[in-house]
Give the backbone structure.
Amino acid sequence: MTQDSTVHSVLWMRVLSGIQPSGQLHLGNYFSMMRQMIHYQDREELFCFVASYHALTTVFEKEKLEEGIRNAVLDFLALGMDPDRSTFWVQSDVPEVAELSWLLSTSITVPQLELGHSYKDKIAQGISPSGGLFFYPILMAADILAFGGEKVPVGKDQKQHLEFTRDIAGRFNNRYGEVFVIPEPEIGKEVAVVPGVDGRKMSKSYGNAIYFFAPEKKLRKTVMGIVTDSTGVDEAKDPENSVLYQIYCLFLNEEERQELAQRFRTPGTGYGHFKQELFERIMETFADARKKREEMAADPGFLKDVMRKGSEKARAIASQYLDRAREAVGLKYL
Ligand code: ADP
Ligand code: TRP
């Protein structure tokens, strides 16, 4: 149970996660994180934010960042995030998080941060990593600890960051007394890594992502571009080794998956046909969200209002944790 019991129900688990506003949403983001997050608001106490401070480590153009933040907010709202039932905000509208990250920074060592995957990746690519990139895991810890997040749904690539957060919270609590809740990551097994159209991990940086809010024509073209082998229409196809089958399965239940595998193994249907079916399935799945997104995009006043209320709710909690942390380390000296 989290410690801010004035605002936290004992019966509900506090679920928290964030997403960077650094590009359009793709199926990997949706199936690994967004879908679960949005379902959580029916069962648990949901905290969700757009990681705008984190995006500063990669987005250096003002307009691009502003547009990215707006888009991410629209994406969440269109997919069903309900700001009345949940706490939904933009990270940089809650500056308490930035201050907390400084207080947490002495609870992790430089050698430990040097083991960070994203930091090491940059070095391996010959890029000189910025201080912000090095500090990234500490800010992420503050994101979670400032709200008493108990369960954190993320993709597999964020597992190490969650371990850093747990270490930071543990060390801080040991040194100064119990202030923070130690969070648990939640990594969906089935969709741990969603493949992209070329079979590698779907990622905006690989140019292999399926963006489900893209204009219809563009979306269809991407789906039609999923890699397949050269098996002909009249030959049996192997579902086990097919990227197309794997992506299609994201939209199916177990029974439908078996049926589809059977259709793959039965000669007579070409890959093109399966791709067209998948495209229609994607359009159907996101039809309501696409419509809602368009309507909301046309009403900036509404968005502004939603984000203002969201940050007020979020700050009310973050300030409690920050206050306790300030007191624990000795900054409330009067
Ligand atoms: P990208 O790799 O496209 O830059 P992000 O790093 O913005 O994606 O990821 C946002 C969230 O979506 C994270 O929780 C991440 O783990 C998850 N995620 C991104 N791509 C995938 C994928 N292909 N499969 C599963 N989860 C993913
Ligand atoms: N680092 C995460 C990503 O790239 C985004 C993120 C920032 C986050 N702070 C977080 C996720 C806190 C969960 C909890 O996907």
